[in-house]
Specification:
- The protein is of the alpha+beta class.
- Helices cover about 25% and strands about 25% of the residues.
- The strands form 4 sheets. Strands 1-9-6-11-5-4-2-3 form an 8-stranded antiparallel β-sheet, with helices on one face. It has a 3-stranded antiparallel β-sheet with strand order 8-7-10, with no helix packed on it.
- A hairpin with a 4-residue loop joins strand 13 (about 320-325) and strand 14 (about 330-335).
- Helix 5 packs across helix 7.
- The chain is globular.
- It starts with 12 loop residues before the first helix and ends with a strand.
- The protein binds succinic acid and cobalt (II) ion.
Length: about 400
Protein backbone atom coordinates (compact mmCIF):
# COMPACT_ATOMS: atom_id res chain seq x y z
CA UNK A 1 0.00 0.00 0.00
CA UNK A 2 2.94 2.32 0.63
CA UNK A 3 4.99 1.51 -2.48
CA UNK A 4 6.24 4.47 -4.56
CA UNK A 5 3.67 5.41 -7.21
CA UNK A 6 4.45 6.79 -10.67
CA UNK A 7 1.16 8.69 -10.24
CA UNK A 8 2.79 10.59 -7.37
CA UNK A 9 6.10 11.19 -9.17
CA UNK A 10 7.64 8.06 -7.60
CA UNK A 11 6.75 9.20 -4.12
CA UNK A 12 5.28 6.85 -1.57
CA UNK A 13 1.65 7.72 -0.72
CA UNK A 14 2.68 8.31 2.89
CA UNK A 15 5.26 10.91 1.80
CA UNK A 16 2.71 12.63 -0.43
CA UNK A 17 0.20 12.74 2.43
CA UNK A 18 2.76 14.07 4.91
CA UNK A 19 4.27 16.73 2.65
CA UNK A 20 1.62 17.82 0.16
CA UNK A 21 -1.95 16.67 0.93
CA UNK A 22 -3.91 19.75 2.08
CA UNK A 23 -0.61 21.60 2.45
CA UNK A 24 0.99 22.64 -0.83
CA UNK A 25 0.58 22.23 -4.60
CA UNK A 26 2.56 19.61 -6.48
CA UNK A 27 3.17 19.28 -10.20
CA UNK A 28 3.83 15.72 -11.36
CA UNK A 29 5.16 15.37 -14.88
CA UNK A 30 4.19 12.09 -16.56
CA UNK A 31 2.07 10.95 -13.63
CA UNK A 32 0.21 8.78 -16.15
CA UNK A 33 2.83 7.95 -18.82
CA UNK A 34 1.43 7.65 -22.34
CA UNK A 35 -2.03 8.72 -21.15
CA UNK A 36 -4.67 9.25 -23.81
CA UNK A 37 -8.07 10.65 -23.04
CA UNK A 38 -10.64 7.88 -22.54
CA UNK A 39 -13.36 10.37 -23.45
CA UNK A 40 -13.61 12.48 -26.62
CA UNK A 41 -14.90 16.06 -27.03
CA UNK A 42 -17.88 14.66 -28.97
CA UNK A 43 -18.73 12.26 -26.13
CA UNK A 44 -18.54 15.10 -23.62
CA UNK A 45 -20.79 17.26 -25.80
CA UNK A 46 -23.22 14.31 -26.04
CA UNK A 47 -23.25 13.89 -22.24
CA UNK A 48 -24.06 17.59 -21.76
CA UNK A 49 -27.28 17.14 -23.71
CA UNK A 50 -28.53 14.45 -21.29
CA UNK A 51 -30.94 15.70 -18.60
CA UNK A 52 -29.53 13.46 -15.84
CA UNK A 53 -25.94 14.62 -16.42
CA UNK A 54 -24.68 17.60 -14.41
CA UNK A 55 -22.89 19.92 -16.82
CA UNK A 56 -21.98 23.57 -17.41
CA UNK A 57 -20.85 25.71 -20.29
CA UNK A 58 -18.65 28.65 -19.31
CA UNK A 59 -18.09 31.39 -21.86
CA UNK A 60 -15.67 34.26 -21.69
CA UNK A 61 -16.72 37.20 -23.83
CA UNK A 62 -15.16 40.58 -24.29
CA UNK A 63 -16.88 43.48 -22.57
CA UNK A 64 -18.00 44.57 -19.14
CA UNK A 65 -19.56 41.26 -18.08
CA UNK A 66 -17.17 38.85 -19.71
CA UNK A 67 -18.15 35.60 -17.95
CA UNK A 68 -21.39 33.68 -18.43
CA UNK A 69 -22.44 30.20 -17.39
CA UNK A 70 -25.16 28.00 -18.87
CA UNK A 71 -26.28 24.87 -17.06
CA UNK A 72 -27.03 21.55 -18.71
CA UNK A 73 -28.84 19.94 -20.34
CA UNK A 74 -27.33 22.01 -23.15
CA UNK A 75 -29.50 22.02 -26.31
CA UNK A 76 -27.76 20.13 -29.11
CA UNK A 77 -27.96 23.06 -31.53
CA UNK A 78 -26.12 25.29 -29.01
CA UNK A 79 -22.76 23.83 -30.07
CA UNK A 80 -23.10 25.08 -33.65
CA UNK A 81 -23.48 28.65 -32.30
CA UNK A 82 -20.39 28.62 -30.10
CA UNK A 83 -17.38 30.77 -31.00
CA UNK A 84 -14.11 29.11 -32.03
CA UNK A 85 -12.32 30.01 -28.80
CA UNK A 86 -12.88 31.09 -25.18
CA UNK A 87 -15.35 28.56 -23.82
CA UNK A 88 -15.29 25.46 -21.63
CA UNK A 89 -17.68 22.57 -21.25
CA UNK A 90 -17.59 20.88 -17.84
CA UNK A 91 -19.17 17.49 -17.14
CA UNK A 92 -19.45 16.17 -13.57
CA UNK A 93 -19.33 12.52 -12.52
CA UNK A 94 -17.81 11.22 -15.75
CA UNK A 95 -16.63 8.15 -13.84
CA UNK A 96 -20.27 7.02 -14.00
CA UNK A 97 -20.33 7.00 -17.76
CA UNK A 98 -16.77 6.13 -18.76
CA UNK A 99 -15.42 2.90 -17.18
CA UNK A 100 -11.79 3.99 -17.70
CA UNK A 101 -12.49 7.04 -15.54
CA UNK A 102 -13.95 4.82 -12.81
CA UNK A 103 -10.67 2.88 -12.95
CA UNK A 104 -8.70 6.12 -12.89
CA UNK A 105 -10.49 7.14 -9.70
CA UNK A 106 -9.41 3.87 -8.10
CA UNK A 107 -5.76 4.88 -8.54
CA UNK A 108 -6.41 7.46 -5.82
CA UNK A 109 -7.01 4.72 -3.27
CA UNK A 110 -4.33 6.21 -1.03
CA UNK A 111 -7.01 8.68 0.06
CA UNK A 112 -10.02 7.17 1.89
CA UNK A 113 -12.79 6.45 -0.64
CA UNK A 114 -15.38 8.47 1.23
CA UNK A 115 -13.25 11.60 0.67
CA UNK A 116 -13.25 11.09 -3.10
CA UNK A 117 -16.03 12.79 -4.99
CA UNK A 118 -16.07 12.34 -8.72
CA UNK A 119 -14.06 12.69 -11.90
CA UNK A 120 -15.06 15.81 -13.79
CA UNK A 121 -13.99 16.29 -17.39
CA UNK A 122 -13.71 19.58 -19.19
CA UNK A 123 -13.32 20.26 -22.86
CA UNK A 124 -12.09 23.61 -24.12
CA UNK A 125 -10.98 24.91 -27.51
CA UNK A 126 -8.00 27.30 -27.58
CA UNK A 127 -8.14 30.05 -24.92
CA UNK A 128 -10.97 28.28 -23.08
CA UNK A 129 -10.88 28.81 -19.33
CA UNK A 130 -13.19 29.07 -16.35
CA UNK A 131 -11.27 32.07 -15.07
CA UNK A 132 -8.92 32.43 -12.09
CA UNK A 133 -10.65 30.96 -9.04
CA UNK A 134 -10.29 28.98 -5.85
CA UNK A 135 -12.00 25.69 -4.98
CA UNK A 136 -12.98 24.57 -1.51
CA UNK A 137 -11.78 21.05 -2.17
CA UNK A 138 -8.55 19.29 -3.00
CA UNK A 139 -8.21 18.45 -6.67
CA UNK A 140 -5.89 16.49 -8.94
CA UNK A 141 -5.95 18.11 -12.40
CA UNK A 142 -4.91 15.60 -15.03
CA UNK A 143 -4.14 16.73 -18.55
CA UNK A 144 -5.87 14.21 -20.83
CA UNK A 145 -5.64 15.79 -24.27
CA UNK A 146 -3.92 18.86 -25.76
CA UNK A 147 -2.04 21.34 -23.62
CA UNK A 148 -3.15 23.74 -20.92
CA UNK A 149 -1.24 26.48 -19.17
CA UNK A 150 -1.86 26.40 -15.45
CA UNK A 151 -1.00 29.39 -13.33
CA UNK A 152 -1.37 29.24 -9.58
CA UNK A 153 -1.02 31.67 -6.73
CA UNK A 154 -0.30 30.49 -3.23
CA UNK A 155 -0.98 33.98 -1.84
CA UNK A 156 -4.01 34.27 0.47
CA UNK A 157 -7.19 35.28 -1.39
CA UNK A 158 -9.21 38.02 0.36
CA UNK A 159 -13.00 37.47 0.43
CA UNK A 160 -13.60 40.65 -1.57
CA UNK A 161 -11.38 39.57 -4.47
CA UNK A 162 -14.24 37.88 -6.36
CA UNK A 163 -16.31 39.28 -9.22
CA UNK A 164 -19.80 40.24 -8.05
CA UNK A 165 -23.12 39.20 -9.61
CA UNK A 166 -22.04 36.10 -11.44
CA UNK A 167 -22.71 32.48 -10.73
CA UNK A 168 -19.00 31.65 -10.77
CA UNK A 169 -16.38 32.34 -8.12
CA UNK A 170 -14.00 34.18 -10.43
CA UNK A 171 -11.27 36.33 -8.96
CA UNK A 172 -11.15 40.04 -9.70
CA UNK A 173 -7.36 40.13 -9.49
CA UNK A 174 -4.97 37.25 -9.93
CA UNK A 175 -1.18 37.37 -9.95
CA UNK A 176 0.47 34.03 -10.62
CA UNK A 177 3.28 32.89 -8.36
CA UNK A 178 4.05 29.85 -10.56
CA UNK A 179 3.05 28.57 -13.98
CA UNK A 180 3.47 25.40 -16.04
CA UNK A 181 2.29 24.00 -19.35
CA UNK A 182 0.73 20.59 -18.83
CA UNK A 183 0.85 17.89 -21.50
CA UNK A 184 -1.18 14.67 -21.60
CA UNK A 185 -0.34 12.52 -18.57
CA UNK A 186 0.91 15.46 -16.45
CA UNK A 187 -0.94 16.14 -13.22
CA UNK A 188 -1.24 19.09 -10.86
CA UNK A 189 -2.37 18.60 -7.26
CA UNK A 190 -3.93 21.61 -5.54
CA UNK A 191 -5.02 21.80 -1.93
CA UNK A 192 -8.23 23.72 -1.14
CA UNK A 193 -8.09 27.49 -1.46
CA UNK A 194 -5.08 27.76 -3.81
CA UNK A 195 -5.98 30.20 -6.59
CA UNK A 196 -5.55 28.70 -10.05
CA UNK A 197 -6.15 29.64 -13.64
CA UNK A 198 -5.99 27.13 -16.48
CA UNK A 199 -6.11 28.30 -20.08
CA UNK A 200 -6.31 25.85 -22.99
CA UNK A 201 -3.50 26.45 -25.48
CA UNK A 202 -5.29 24.29 -28.06
CA UNK A 203 -8.18 21.79 -28.09
CA UNK A 204 -7.88 20.42 -24.60
CA UNK A 205 -9.44 17.94 -22.18
CA UNK A 206 -8.66 18.17 -18.48
CA UNK A 207 -9.84 15.66 -15.89
CA UNK A 208 -10.36 16.72 -12.29
CA UNK A 209 -10.35 14.10 -9.57
CA UNK A 210 -12.23 16.00 -6.93
CA UNK A 211 -12.68 15.43 -3.22
CA UNK A 212 -15.40 16.14 -0.74
CA UNK A 213 -15.18 17.60 2.71
CA UNK A 214 -18.49 18.26 4.45
CA UNK A 215 -18.81 21.73 5.96
CA UNK A 216 -19.41 21.98 9.68
CA UNK A 217 -22.82 23.48 8.88
CA UNK A 218 -23.72 20.44 6.75
CA UNK A 219 -22.57 18.06 9.49
CA UNK A 220 -24.60 19.85 12.12
CA UNK A 221 -27.76 20.12 10.01
CA UNK A 222 -27.65 16.49 8.96
CA UNK A 223 -26.89 15.19 12.47
CA UNK A 224 -29.65 17.31 13.98
CA UNK A 225 -32.15 15.96 11.42
CA UNK A 226 -31.02 12.40 12.10
CA UNK A 227 -31.39 12.71 15.87
CA UNK A 228 -34.63 14.68 15.69
CA UNK A 229 -36.27 12.05 13.50
CA UNK A 230 -35.76 9.51 16.29
CA UNK A 231 -37.12 11.60 19.15
CA UNK A 232 -40.76 11.46 20.23
CA UNK A 233 -42.95 14.53 20.85
CA UNK A 234 -43.10 13.49 24.53
CA UNK A 235 -39.35 14.00 24.90
CA UNK A 236 -39.30 17.67 25.83
CA UNK A 237 -38.24 20.22 28.40
CA UNK A 238 -39.78 19.46 31.82
CA UNK A 239 -39.48 21.24 35.17
CA UNK A 240 -41.41 19.42 37.91
CA UNK A 241 -38.92 20.83 40.45
CA UNK A 242 -39.55 24.42 39.39
CA UNK A 243 -38.90 26.90 42.19
CA UNK A 244 -40.29 30.40 42.47
CA UNK A 245 -37.96 32.83 40.69
CA UNK A 246 -37.24 36.32 41.85
CA UNK A 247 -37.41 37.59 38.26
CA UNK A 248 -40.04 35.93 36.04
CA UNK A 249 -38.20 37.47 33.09
CA UNK A 250 -35.03 35.48 33.78
CA UNK A 251 -33.99 32.21 32.12
CA UNK A 252 -32.66 30.40 35.17
CA UNK A 253 -29.39 28.52 35.37
CA UNK A 254 -31.44 25.36 36.20
CA UNK A 255 -33.29 25.69 32.90
CA UNK A 256 -30.03 26.25 31.02
CA UNK A 257 -28.41 23.27 32.74
CA UNK A 258 -31.30 21.10 31.59
CA UNK A 259 -31.01 22.38 27.99
CA UNK A 260 -27.25 21.78 27.96
CA UNK A 261 -27.83 18.31 29.43
CA UNK A 262 -30.28 17.39 26.64
CA UNK A 263 -27.78 18.40 23.97
CA UNK A 264 -24.71 16.95 25.70
CA UNK A 265 -26.44 13.57 26.17
CA UNK A 266 -27.09 13.42 22.43
CA UNK A 267 -23.52 14.38 21.56
CA UNK A 268 -22.08 11.88 24.05
CA UNK A 269 -23.67 8.98 22.15
CA UNK A 270 -20.69 7.82 20.04
CA UNK A 271 -22.60 4.91 18.50
CA UNK A 272 -25.29 7.32 17.29
CA UNK A 273 -22.68 9.68 15.79
CA UNK A 274 -20.83 6.82 14.05
CA UNK A 275 -24.00 5.40 12.52
CA UNK A 276 -25.28 8.77 11.38
CA UNK A 277 -21.92 9.69 9.82
CA UNK A 278 -21.68 6.37 7.95
CA UNK A 279 -25.17 6.91 6.56
CA UNK A 280 -24.64 10.60 5.82
CA UNK A 281 -21.31 10.27 4.05
CA UNK A 282 -22.37 7.36 1.83
CA UNK A 283 -25.59 9.01 0.66
CA UNK A 284 -25.64 9.05 -3.14
CA UNK A 285 -24.86 12.49 -4.57
CA UNK A 286 -27.81 12.36 -6.92
CA UNK A 287 -30.64 9.87 -7.05
CA UNK A 288 -30.67 8.14 -10.41
CA UNK A 289 -33.35 5.87 -11.80
CA UNK A 290 -32.31 2.30 -11.09
CA UNK A 291 -32.56 -0.07 -14.03
CA UNK A 292 -35.17 -2.79 -13.62
CA UNK A 293 -33.42 -5.89 -12.39
CA UNK A 294 -34.71 -9.37 -11.86
CA UNK A 295 -34.81 -10.06 -8.12
CA UNK A 296 -32.84 -13.22 -7.34
CA UNK A 297 -32.90 -15.55 -4.37
CA UNK A 298 -29.60 -16.65 -2.86
CA UNK A 299 -29.42 -19.84 -4.92
CA UNK A 300 -30.16 -18.03 -8.20
CA UNK A 301 -27.63 -15.35 -7.33
CA UNK A 302 -24.87 -17.91 -6.71
CA UNK A 303 -25.68 -19.68 -9.98
CA UNK A 304 -25.54 -16.38 -11.88
CA UNK A 305 -22.29 -15.37 -10.15
CA UNK A 306 -20.55 -18.64 -10.99
CA UNK A 307 -21.75 -18.38 -14.61
CA UNK A 308 -20.85 -14.69 -15.09
CA UNK A 309 -17.67 -14.96 -12.98
CA UNK A 310 -17.39 -11.25 -12.21
CA UNK A 311 -19.39 -8.96 -9.98
CA UNK A 312 -18.97 -5.17 -10.25
CA UNK A 313 -19.76 -2.32 -7.92
CA UNK A 314 -22.30 0.10 -9.35
CA UNK A 315 -20.42 3.41 -9.90
CA UNK A 316 -23.41 5.32 -8.52
CA UNK A 317 -23.04 3.78 -5.10
CA UNK A 318 -20.85 4.75 -2.19
CA UNK A 319 -19.53 1.96 0.04
CA UNK A 320 -17.80 2.49 3.40
CA UNK A 321 -17.42 0.63 6.66
CA UNK A 322 -16.77 1.41 10.29
CA UNK A 323 -15.01 -1.10 12.46
CA UNK A 324 -15.30 -0.16 16.11
CA UNK A 325 -12.35 -1.75 17.91
CA UNK A 326 -13.80 -1.00 21.36
CA UNK A 327 -17.20 -2.59 20.85
CA UNK A 328 -15.94 -5.04 18.21
CA UNK A 329 -18.85 -4.03 15.96
CA UNK A 330 -18.55 -3.69 12.21
CA UNK A 331 -21.05 -1.79 10.13
CA UNK A 332 -21.29 -1.57 6.38
CA UNK A 333 -22.82 1.54 4.81
CA UNK A 334 -24.02 1.70 1.24
CA UNK A 335 -25.79 4.72 -0.21
CA UNK A 336 -26.95 5.90 3.17
CA UNK A 337 -28.13 2.41 4.27
CA UNK A 338 -26.72 0.80 7.39
CA UNK A 339 -25.92 -2.93 7.41
CA UNK A 340 -24.67 -4.02 10.84
CA UNK A 341 -22.49 -7.11 10.33
CA UNK A 342 -22.33 -9.99 12.81
CA UNK A 343 -18.77 -10.80 13.96
CA UNK A 344 -18.49 -13.80 11.64
CA UNK A 345 -19.31 -11.53 8.68
CA UNK A 346 -16.96 -8.68 9.68
CA UNK A 347 -14.46 -9.86 7.04
CA UNK A 348 -16.98 -8.81 4.36
CA UNK A 349 -16.66 -5.08 5.16
CA UNK A 350 -13.12 -4.42 3.85
CA UNK A 351 -13.60 -7.02 1.13
CA UNK A 352 -16.62 -5.16 -0.25
CA UNK A 353 -15.47 -1.60 0.42
CA UNK A 354 -11.84 -1.74 -0.75
CA UNK A 355 -12.56 -3.31 -4.14
CA UNK A 356 -14.77 -2.38 -7.05
CA UNK A 357 -15.01 -5.83 -8.60
CA UNK A 358 -14.77 -9.41 -7.43
CA UNK A 359 -14.32 -12.67 -9.25
CA UNK A 360 -16.26 -15.80 -8.28
CA UNK A 361 -13.00 -17.68 -7.85
CA UNK A 362 -11.65 -15.00 -5.51
CA UNK A 363 -14.74 -15.18 -3.29
CA UNK A 364 -15.24 -18.95 -3.42
CA UNK A 365 -14.12 -19.65 0.13
CA UNK A 366 -15.90 -16.55 1.55
CA UNK A 367 -19.13 -17.66 -0.15
CA UNK A 368 -19.17 -20.71 2.11
CA UNK A 369 -19.18 -18.47 5.21
CA UNK A 370 -22.65 -18.20 6.75
CA UNK A 371 -24.50 -15.07 5.66
CA UNK A 372 -22.05 -13.84 3.00
CA UNK A 373 -23.96 -15.11 -0.03
CA UNK A 374 -27.16 -13.72 1.48
CA UNK A 375 -25.51 -10.33 1.95
CA UNK A 376 -24.26 -10.27 -1.65
CA UNK A 377 -27.72 -11.30 -2.88
CA UNK A 378 -29.24 -8.38 -0.96
CA UNK A 379 -26.69 -5.96 -2.47
CA UNK A 380 -27.41 -7.38 -5.93
CA UNK A 381 -31.17 -6.97 -5.50
CA UNK A 382 -30.61 -3.31 -4.53
CA UNK A 383 -28.51 -2.85 -7.71
CA UNK A 384 -25.46 -1.86 -5.63
CA UNK A 385 -23.53 -4.58 -7.46
CA UNK A 386 -24.15 -6.07 -10.89
CA UNK A 387 -22.96 -8.60 -13.44
CA UNK A 388 -22.01 -7.38 -16.90
C1 LIG B 1 -11.10 23.11 -15.97
O1 LIG B 1 -11.03 21.89 -16.14
O2 LIG B 1 -11.07 23.91 -16.89
C2 LIG B 1 -11.27 23.68 -14.60
C3 LIG B 1 -10.95 22.77 -13.51
C4 LIG B 1 -10.69 23.55 -12.23
O3 LIG B 1 -10.14 24.62 -12.25
O4 LIG B 1 -10.99 23.08 -11.12
CO1 LIG C 1 -10.71 24.82 -9.98
Amino acid sequence: MNEPLTLLGNRCPETFLAEYWQKQPLLIRDALPGFTSPVSPEELAGLCCEPEVESRLVLEQAGAAPWTVEYGPIPENRFAELPETHWTLLVQECNRYVPELAELREQFNFIPNWRVDDVMASYAPARGSVGPHTDQYDVFLIQAHGTRRWQISTDPVPDDNFLPDIDLCIMREFTATEEWILHPGDMLYLPPGVAHHGVALEDCITLSVGFRAPSHAELLNSFADHVASQLTPAQRFADPALRLQQHPGEISSDALTQVRGILQKILADDACIDRWFGEFITEAKNEYPVEEIEILDEHQFLQAFSAKDRLYRNEQTRFAFISNKTTNNTALFINGQHYPLPTELAFAAPLLCDQHQWSYVQLQSELTQPGFAKLLTTLYNHAYVYFT
